[in-house]
Amino acid sequence: MEIESLLKYISRHIDLSEQEVSIVSEHVKIREYLKGQFIVQQGDVCKYESYVISGCAKTFFVDQEGNEHLVMFAIENWWTADLGSFITQQPADYNVQCLEKTKVAQFSHESLEQLYVKIPKLERFFRIIIQNAFVASQKRIVRNLSLTAKERYRIFREQYPDIEQRVPQYLIASYLGITKQFLSKVRAELLTGN
Fold first, then answer.
1. Number of separate domains in the chain
2. Comparing C-alpha atoms, which of 110, 3, 108 is closest to residue 52?
3. What is the DSSP letter of 35?
4. 5 and 97 belong to one structural domain
5. Both 125 and 143 in a single domain?
6. Edge-to-edge strand list for the sheet holding 48-54
7. Residues 157 and 98 occupy one common structural domain
8. Residues with Cβ within 8 Å of residue 193, at least 6 apart in sequence
9. Which one, 83, 98, 132, 178, has least CB within 10 Å?
10. What is the pLDDT of residues 155-192, one digit of tens each?
11. Same structural domain for residues 147 and 120?
12. Statement to judge: residues 141 and 89 lie in one domain
């Protein structure tokens, strides 16, 4: 079953009966995206909250000058969406684009609302997911405002070792808020122990 990893992830936070697993399975949609495809595009309404079964995606926005600003990666067992758009059903501020072939389990806004009624403890589960995302976002803001690029890169490598091997360096630089050239300099300094 393709949603096994999702169900295992959910079971780390709440217990579901066999009947509840069946209900969740009826409300989830499995989709595959090719490298380069968008799960959501800036300006469109985010229709799904997506759990990554396999693959890798990036969340970013494009500013008025056409510059891309990467705010998040999503790999296996991570959630991705423009959460503000998904919750409010207003146009998205962010794009979510696949960096490799990506398989996701998706919940539509309507499906989640139905699941909250049918299985109230799922509301608690998604509250935990949103709280974790909020805390991670706050920590990232503090790091970006208070740490050097070298410190931010070191933390990135410690927290996300799998991502560094899967995505181009220019995307990591964008995530860290630095240029690709500066990232190369930081990497060289870390290799030499400076």
1. 2
2. 3
3. T
4. yes
5. no
6. 29-33, 102-108, 48-54, 79-80
7. no
8. none
9. 132
10. 999 988 889 889 999 999 999 999 999 999 998 888 88
11. no
12. no
Distance (Å, whole) CA 103 – CA 33: 6
- Measured distance between the N- and C-terminal CA atoms of the chain, rounded to whole angstroms: 49
* Domain shared by 82 and 171, yes or no: no
CA 156 vs CA 20, 44, 61, 184: distances in Å: 37, 30, 20, 15
Final residue in a domain of this structure, among 129, 157, 177: 129
Confidence of residue 194 (pLDDT cuts 50, 70, 90): low
Residue 77: phi and psi, rounded to 5, are: 70, 20
- Please name which of 137, 136, 133 lies closest in space to residue 79, comparing C-alpha atoms: 133
d(CA 115, CA 23): 8
Using the 3D structure, point to which of 87, 107, 129 is the last residue of a domain.
Answer: 129
DSSP 3-state assignment of 84? helix
Condensed to tens digits (0 to 9), the pLDDT of residues 52-102 reads 999 999 999 999 999 899 999 999 999 999 999 999 999 999 999 999 999
Question: Token digits for 183?
Answer: 């990232």
CA atoms of 66 and 25, how far apart (whole Å)? 40
- The three-state secondary structure class of 74 is strand
Domain range enclosing 45? 1-129
